[in-house]
Each structure stands twice: as structure tokens, then as C-alpha cells.
Structures
1.
Amino acid sequence: MQKIKDYVEANKDRFLDELFELLRFPSVSADPQFKEGVLNTAEFVAQKLKDAGADNVEICPTAGYPIVYGEKIFDPSLPTVLVYGHYDVQPADPLELWDTPPFEPTVRDGKIYARGAADDKGQFYMHVKAFEYMVKNNELACNIKFMIEGEEEVGSANLGIFVSANKERLKADVIVISDTSMISLETPSLETGLRGLSYVEVEVTGPNRDLHSGVYGGAVANPATILAKLIASLHDENNHIAIPGFYDDVVELTDEERKALNAAPFDIEEYKTDLGVAEVWGEKGYTTIERTGTRPTLEVNGIWGGYIGEGAKTVLPSKAFAKISMRLVPNQKSERITKLFKDHFEGIAPNYIKVDVKPHHGGEPVVTPTDSIAYKAAEKALEETFNKKPVPTRGGGSIPIVALFEQELGIKTVLLGFGLDSDNLHSPNEKYGIENYLKGIETIPLFHKYYAELSK
């Protein structure tokens, strides 16, 4: 352990400089104007894998953005670890809410502020630097494969095709993903499950053109008003999702499971203060921890229509739109939930407007076993690094490819994340703690060591 710490300390400035260089690439996969930035990021990642000691590094083309692959197979008799990450990032909008430019990493109070700092550049790059340490110090305990993609933030549409076509190449004993969070540096944790996702876009159309709100207001239905009413009807007075059949496949936690889940350290007042809210909100009968990790949700991610520019324009819009995401829990299927939503939303629409529900992407919920060799190896590694046994938690986010990997490759995943829920993922002023980054680099070689030992 001390040898790893010494190496990280001696190379800390370089590790940070390299991460800052990676963060400067505007690799926004959702926006075509950033295409060059995404492709340049793939080149950078491939070069850094080569520099760290990977063999057979390749930028693999897909119908969208490429997947960077690299490996180090030094002893086929040893276990193989497949590291997954993504080099694309969310759009930085709204830019005016950033305190510093999103693609110019800035350090404040020990945190790196930049788009992608925690999701997922800072986290997957820990594995590259840990790999460098293991190669240079002859401490490789497992064979390693890297698969770093560029379309995670837009649904990984081409990853499944790549995985299906490269099953032999991707053969491994376990997949490690660092794209999740822990409770805190004082209370390390390991996520044991992730929610699934159903993402849709709704379009409501009224008149055949925008209308003067004085001339036509009160005589023609306003799509923005009707959309707001339809969305409001999706939750009942207990904040329960009011779509028939939505909860049919949800398995309720036992009293023992709920008790264990709520034993994790959590300060509700600190939570509210951090978010700047007077009270929490959610499904009646469940705690905040349960709501964010074990219950399905339906949230509006964006809503627009009509005039939204400066000043006033008295218009009754022809169309209104919303983007809606539903987080799913084990046993729920994204395809079924998407159909339930579409049928319900179109079914409750009044006949004086037209509704079109367009499915985007989805993914299945997963639960990772806590009795596996991989989980125990991660647990031992974190305990050695943090001097405290990690707490098992459930993650509220979604990584749809975890279910894909299990389906296509038959491999379980361990979620070895070092981010924090307060890192502003997908929001302005995203950040990642320097200590989190360096702790990750220290911990990952220990995971490989213990995984090899426990696999014997």
C-alpha cells in the first residue's frame, strides 16, 4: 500500500495535468457541433493507454462515435478484468450558470471544476493511471482489457452491436466500472444496484400555427397549458406515479432490507441545505434514501414551447414539448414501461390537441451480488485505502450497459465509484475532488491484487 501511495504522491502533478488535458476536450456526443472534440478525445485516450503500457490499442469505428480498446494479456492463466468507461460528456448548457468555463478545468477548494470531471473522465482515467503504476512496478495481478466508449450520454446505441460482434475479444472474468458515487471520503461505500431508464419526448400540437394570444386566447386550446396539465396528472396526491400498471412488476423491499438500507449515514438537514430546498419531496411512505435508490420515478427533464426570448411576445404557441425520464427498479422492463407511458399519455389527451410520444433510449435495472469474489475484492481494497469497511448502497442513476454486458457476455459487474452525489453531475459546475481522484488510483491496484488472490 505504501508503495502505491508513494508513486501517486510522486506523480500527482502529472496525473492532474493529464486529467486537465483530457477535460479540455469538448466531447459532447449529443451535439454534432462538437464532433471534432469527441473524435480528438478518443485519440487522446488511445495514446494514453499506449503510454501506460497497453497492447493492441485500437480506435474501433462504429456507426456513431468510436470505442477505444486496449489490453494487456500477460498470463492467460490469471483472471481478466474488463474496465469500462466513457469519454463523452453531457452538454454544458446553460453556460451562464457556470462559475468558470466548463472545458477549462479549474481547481477550487480541492475540487476540479469541469464538464466530465466526475462523469466519467476523472473516474475512468483513474484506471489508466493505476494501470500505469502496475505495469511500471511489475505488479500486474490480472490481465486487463479497456473498453472506453463515446456515446454513453446518448444511450450507447452502438455499444451493443460492438459487444455482440466482439464477444471473444471481450472475454473476461469481471467488469469494473467507475461511474458511480460513494457516500463520502469519510464513509466509503459500494453500490450494489442501479436503476433502469425509460426516456421519452412528448410533442403536443394545437393550432396549425402560432396565434395572437389576444385574438385567439380563450377560444383555442393552448398546447403549453394542456401539456402542463397532462404532466401534472402523472402523479397523484401522494406523489405516486399515476400510470396504470406502472408498479405491477416492482418488488417491495422487506422490512429487513429497508432497515439495512436506511442504516447508511445520511443527514437530511445537510441534504436540504446542500440543495437549497426547504423540504424534500417524493412518494409518500418512503425515506429519501429509498426514493433515490429503490423506488421508480418519473421526472420532467425539460419543457418548452412558444416564445422564450428576451422581452414579451403575446403568442399562443402551436406546439409544446417535454422530455421525460423514468427510473426503473429491478423486475421493471424499459420497453414495457415506455409502452405504458405512451399508451397512457396519448390516451388521456383531449381531442382538441394532438399528442405524439417519441421513445428515445432505455436500459434495464441491475442488482450486483455482494457475495461475489469481485465485490469482496473491491470491499477489501476500499477498506485498506480508507481504513474503513465500505457500506453497501443502491445507486439512483442508470448505466444501461451493465445489463447489456451480463446478457451478451455473461459477466457480472462491480461498481467501484469514487464520485459524490454532490458532484453536480449533468449540471453546471460539475466537480470532482482531487482526493477522490488520487484515492481511486491508490485503490484500483489493490482491487486487482485481491481479485487475483480470491480467484485462486
2.
Amino acid sequence: MTENPVRIEADYLIETSVDPRVAAETMAGEQSSGTFVAVPGETPELKARAAARVESIELLEAASAPSLPVARPVNPDGPWHRARVTLSWPLDNIGVSLPNLVTAIAGNLWELRQLTGLRLLDLRLPLAFASAYFGPKFGVAGTRELTGVSGRPLIGTIIKPSIGLSPAETAGLVATLCEAGIDFIKDDELQSDGAYCPFDERVRTVMRVVNDHADRTGKKVMIAFNLTGEIDQMRRRHDLVLREGGTCVMVSINSVGLAGMIELGRHTQLPIHAHRNGWGALNRHPALGWDYTAWQKIWRLAGADHMHVNGIGNKFSETDDSVVTSARAALTPMFAHKPCIAMPVFSSGQSPAQALPTWRALGSTDLIFAAGGGILAHPDGPAAGVADLRAAWDAAIAGKS
């Protein structure tokens, strides 16, 4: 569990051509009471009250060249020092506000001339944030209760083709998947409210199939309908899903922003499936952006019940170690009395082949394992795809190859 300090704390990887202590002090000043020159109002009393502090600096192996171009470098010939730096801020600087937290811990830091690399690694928040925000209303336990799945991962898929199907065609595919024993189905993030498949008609048509299947079998498949939009649109779409008997909504969190997610989190009576599309722009360069460990905490507090973490052997550029670290981060409590656990979602090029290595690496069944092509493109059809994926996970949990 993350310790909860009195002050806001954030850890960074920095790369700089100046003394790392000077770079860290520049970061602290830029993100609190200081600026590029001394100003008369920044008295010792004000600094004691409001200045960010450099809590620690750990020198790391130096870089042989700058990781990022700097238009006006301070020392163009280096050397380029790397260090792990922890800064802290008094909570009173910003109040208990997630949007203003992001401004404080990130803000203008990536623009500083002194830095040729900056990555936000982790953050620790005072307990006041746990009281101010709902966090996940359902998380792992609530999702399992709604789906009736225990002791194993939720087996899921994504509607494919991603876009272009009509509501009736979508419902036909959902019917096939329900009969195959699927636990979870999600819209692709590209499927929203377009002319081919309007949101309202898609929800009503699909939920008729899902409700009919539940009436016959007692198993209600969880469908994550993508309600991404403006705040009032998302509220209305959520309410429609709820009225039709749906049990999940999905949102593209980078698209709606933090304020949009907070408002949806306050409004929702259903689990929120948080899709991270666009994440690569924040993470892909190892000396730039955010580590998932830091980033996902903000969205969990805002109300995300499910968090995408990519998948082992995925179709993208992320390493397996990074994927597993991300999943463990989502399952790590943030506060002792309010864990804010989110269910990690493994996806992107997944198939039965990844069940055993995922189980061995994570050591937990608290996840959604979503295979799109890995189910829908099975040579014997989607039902066989679901059956093979279930069998692969049963075997993995039993310790079989």
C-alpha cells in the first residue's frame, strides 16, 4: 500500500546538463512560489508556507547524449546527469483538487531548459484526497458481483469490426457471444454515436439480446457501452444504459479529460470501464512523460473501476514487464481505509497463448482478459474462441501448460 504523507509527494526521473540539485530546485520553484528571478513578494515567510521542497535526490548512471532536443540548452555539450528526484508540496497550495494536482506535479516542467529528460514516476497523496473523491464505486468486487464470475478472470472481447456494423448486426454478434459463455463485451473505442450505429439504438437493440439471454440462463453478460462525449451527453447516455438494464459504461479518459471523468464518476450508478487510448503519447519515450504507476492513481480516484494495461505479448510497443507493473499498480491500495482498487484490463493482441504467462507474471485472477481477434477470428467461430480462452485460463490456474 502507498504511504499517505501530509504533503503531496511526486517522484521524477530527470536528465539535465546542470547540477541535478540545481535542476531539482528549479523544478520546485517553477511549480510553487518561485520564478526565473527573485521577486520582492517571495519572502522567507511565504516560502516556508508555500514553496515546494526537494525531499531527495538519488544520482543515477549518466547519459552519453541528451534524450530530448532542447532549443536553447543551458550546457549544450553536457555532461548529462540523470537522477531520481522527489518533490513535495503543501496541500494548502492547491486544496483537494485533482485537476490542480496535475498542474502542480506536472505543469510547465517538461518545458524547462535545464531538462533534457523528465518522467513522472509515482505520487503519494494526503488522506484528504480519499475523502474528497469517490474512487471506484465497484472495482473488482462489484464487477464480480454483477457478472457472477469468481475464482478466475473475466473472459471478454471487443466488438469487431471496430466500426461499421449496424445496431442489428452488433446485437447479432452479441447474441452469438452470449450463447458462447462470454463474461464481458466492450465497444471498440472508435464506436461512439456515429451514423452507422447510433448510441441509443445500439444500447436498446443490444440490451434486448442481453436481457433475453439473462432471462433464459440467469447469466447477464456485462456490456461496456462507449458513452464518450460531452458531460451532459455522458450523463444522459449513462442513464439510458441504466434504464435498459445495462451493467457497465465505457469512457475514453484522455478524450473527456479529468473534469469529465470526475463528473461521470460522481454521476454513475454503473462500473466505469476506463479506456486509455492515446496513452502512448504520454509514455512511449523512456525519458519523457508519465509512468503508468503515477498516472493511473489520478483516474482511479476520479472513479475508474476498470483500467486498461495492454497485455503480455501485445500488438503494440509496450514490454511485458511494463504491462505487469501497470496491472499490479491498479491492484495496489492507495489508502488503508479506502483502497480504490481498479480491475486491470488485459487486451491488445491477446489469445489463449497469453493465459499462462499472464497468470505466472501477475499471480492474480483479478483481471479482465479481453481478446478481440483472438475470439472473433477463431477458425471454428467465436464460440470456440471463448471456449479455448476459458480452457487456457482454467489450465493456467491449475498449473498446467
